[in-house]
Design goal:
The chain is an alpha/beta fold. Helices cover 34% and strands 29% of the residues. It has a six-stranded mixed β-sheet. Helix 3 crosses helix 4 and helix 5 packs parallel to helix 6. The structure holds adenosine-5'-diphosphate (ADP) and magnesium ion. Magnesium ion (MG) binds next to helix 1.
């Protein structure tokens, strides 16, 4: 089985005034291709810090991180931008959609960043748009959609570039229970068709949808 994520002894510190806060403590984590992993922990435990490192938005202070055969500590800023665009699909609690763009324009963004033309990107995204049941909403603006629909747009945008991993931060945090359940069902389906998913949550009920759960407590990762 191919390892998509290999994290060895990662540490991360924040400076708070004269103090140093140890936010990630010798974290080790391996994720296989096709796995659906949840990282469960309370507020302040280091979830966002860890997901920022996994998502190559922030670097650790020590340790090593290999993502889909790329050694991240050695990557330049330019390479990191490309890795984020090609290897990672981000899904955030608050969707992070561009309000002045319609659904289609939001979804094709990662493909335009890669240099596809508008036409190519639209053609390449149709299957994803259909899979997420968004065909009838393609020309709507995000504010004209329900929370669940907006999260589906965000999921489509994350999927459209066929990333090596989907990184999901509290995906149901802003949704009512019914829409939250639908989004979790969708992750089951995406896992079934072979996607690798790493989901961060403080909610055990949400984490239990994953195949494997690891806990993060005070910056330390504990395997279940
Ligand atoms: N930019 C920052 N500067 C200083 N401390 C931070 C910063 N970001 C997070 N922290 C601290 O690091 C710890 C972990 O935070 P975070 O990763 O946001 O946890 P979680 O996402 O689990 O709530 C907390 O104690 C938090 O206060
Ligand atoms: Mg957080």
């Amino acid at each position: 089985m191919k390892k998509i994520i290999e994290i060895k002894d990662i540490n991360k510190y924040y400076s708070v005034g004269a103090e140093k806060l140890h936010a990630l403590k010798d974290v080790n984590l391996e994720v296989d291709e096709g796995e659906f992993l949840a990282i469960l922990g309370p507020s302040g435990s280091g979830k966002s810090t860890l997901i920022n490192v996994i998502g190559c938005m922030d670097k650790s202070d020590s340790g090593s991180y290999c993502l889909d055969d790329c050694q991240i500590e050695q990557a330049s800023e330019k390479e990191l931008t490309q890795i984020r665009n090609e290897k990672i699909g981000f899904i955030f609690q608050k969707y992070h959609l561009i309000q002045t763009y319609n659904v289609m324009q939001n979804i094709i963004m990662p493909l335009l960043v890669r240099g596809m033309t508008q036409k190519e990107a639209e053609a390449a995204s149709l299957e994803t748009i259909r899979m997420l049941g968004l065909e009838e909403r393609m020309h709507h603006k995000p504010r004209e959609l329900s929370g669940g629909q907006q999260q589906r747009v965000a999921i489509a945008r994350a999927l459209v570039g066929e990333p090596a991993i989907l990184l999901v931060d509290e995906p149901t945090g802003a949704l009512d229970q019914t829409s939250g359940k639908e989004v979790l069902k969708l992750f089951h389906r995406l896992h079934e068709v072979g996607n690798t998913i790493v989901m961060i949550t403080h909610d055990l009920g949400v984490a239990q949808h994953a195949q494997r759960i690891v806990r993060i407590v005070d910056g330390e990762l504990l395997e279940e």
